[in-house]
Amino acid sequence: MALINENYLKLKAGYLFPEIARRVKAFTEANPDAAKRLIRCGIGDVTEALPEAVRYAMHEAVDEMGKRESFHGYGPEQGYDFLRQAIAKNDFQARGLNIEADEIFVSDGSKCDTGNILDIFGSGNKIAITDPVYPVYVDTNVMNGNTGDADENGAYGGLVYLKCTPENNFVADIPKEKVDLVYLCYPNNPTGAVATRAQLEAWVKYCLANDTTLLYDAAYEAFIRDPELPRSIYEIEGARECAIEFRSFSKNGGFTGVRCAFVVIPKTLMGRKKDGSKHPLHPLWSRRHSTKFNGASYIVQRGAEALYTDEGKAQVKELIEHYMGNAALLVEACKKAGLPVYGGVNAPYVWVGCPSGLSSWQMFDKMLNEANVVITPGSGFGSAGEGWFRISAFNSRANVEEVCRRIAALK
Ligand code: MLT
C-alpha cells in the first residue's frame, strides 16, 4: 500500500461550497415544494449568457478545428501568442503598465493557479493570509504541508492570519512581523472590500522591504467602478519586483463554465535559494506549466481573445453593469432590513452582518428555511467571518428582486 499525503487529513471536513451544496440537497429532498422557489446566491457563479462576441469566435474556432489545414493539436503550454498579446496590450500596456506578453501565462482557471503556484515555492516559508479568506489559499497550503494542525477555531498552526473586520474596512493591515509570502485579493472575495492606492502602496513597500512575495488575486478587478482605485497591482510602483497577479475571465466574461484565466509573473520578480542567492520565479513557473499543463484549449483561448474586441468589451461592460445593478439592490435591501452591509459597490459580493445573536450557519439555515435563499456563511471563510454572511450578486435581475422582497419579509 502506498503512503498517503497525510496533510489532507488536517483539512476541515469539506470544501465550503460542496458543504453548502450538501446541505441544500438535504433541504430540497426534505422540502420539495420549497425547493421549487429556491434562489441560489451562495457560490459566486455567473448566470448570464456568454457574450455574443465570444460565441462567434468560438464557433469560428470550432470550424477551423474541423478542417485539416487549420486544425490545432497541442498548443503552447503558456498560451497562444494571440491571447497573450491581447492581454498584455489591453489589460496592461493600454493602461500604461509595463507587462509584456511573455510575462503572461494562460491557464484554465484562477482556482488552479492560486493553488498550483505553491509548486514553485519551497517549504518553510512564513505565509500570511487574510481572515476571512478565499478558502483555496488556505487549503492548498495545508495540502502542501505548509501548516500545522487546525485549532478549535479552524485556524492552522504556522499561518499568519490578518484579521479583516469593520475596524479596518476589511482591508488587511500590514503585519508587524516579516512573512515570506502573502495572499491578498482585491476586490475581495468574500467581503467585497477594495484596497485603495495608498493601502496597496503600503503593501508593496512592506513586500520590498521584507523580501516578501505578494500573491495578488485580482479576479474581480473588472467590477471596480471607482476610477481612483487600482485594478492591477502593477499600477503600484515596485510591484514588478514583488508581486504575482492572478486574473480570470470567469466573472467578467462569464467563463466559469468555459474555463480560462492567466497569471502574470514579471521577469524581474525573484525568489531566494537556500544559500541566500536570488533566482527568478518566471522560468520556474514556465517550466512547471510545460511539465504539468498542456495549455488551455484553442477554442477557449479564441473565445477569451474576443473579449478584447470592441464588441467584446461592450458586452463585458453590459454584464458587469447587470451584476453590479443586482449588487446595489441587495445592498439596499439589507440596509433597509437594518443589517450592517459592506461590499457590493466595487465588487459583486455583498457582505452582511447577521441579525444579532445569530451565527453565520444559523443565518444560512434561516435564509434557507424561511426565505428559501442560499447564501454563504461568513464563518466558512475563516473565524473572523463568524457573524457575517455573503450574498452573491451573480443572478438574474428577477431573482435578485425576489431575494430583496424575501429579505424584507424576514422575521
Ligand atoms: C466563490 O463563490 O467564492 C467563487 O465562486 C469561488 C471561485 O471563484 O472559485
TrEMBL record:
Q: What reaction(s) does this enzyme catalyze?
A: (2S,6S)-2,6-diaminopimelate + 2-oxoglutarate = (S)-2,3,4,5-tetrahydrodipicolinate + L-glutamate + H2O + H(+)
Coiled-coil parts of chain = none
Q: What residues does the Aminotransferase class I/classII large domain cover?
A: 42-407
Q: InterPro entries, per this entry?
A: Aminotransferase_I/II_large, DapL/ALD1, PyrdxlP-dep_Trfase, PyrdxlP-dep_Trfase_major, PyrdxlP-dep_Trfase_small
The enzyme's E.C. designation? 2.6.1.83
Quick one: which pathway? Amino-acid biosynthesis; L-lysine biosynthesis via DAP pathway; LL-2,6-diaminopimelate from (S)-tetrahydrodipicolinate (aminotransferase route): step 1/1
Q: What class of enzyme is it?
A: transferase
- One example GO MF annotation: L,L-diaminopimelate aminotransferase activity
Superkingdom of the organism of origin: Bacteria
Q: Which NCBIfam families match?
A: DAPAT_plant (TIGR03542)
Q: Which PANTHER family match?
A: AMINOTRANSFERASE
Name the chain's protein.
LL-diaminopimelate aminotransferase
Naturally occurring in which organism (per UniProt): Roseimicrobium gellanilyticum
Q: What is the lineage of its organism?
A: Bacteria, Pseudomonadati, Verrucomicrobiota, Verrucomicrobiia, Verrucomicrobiales
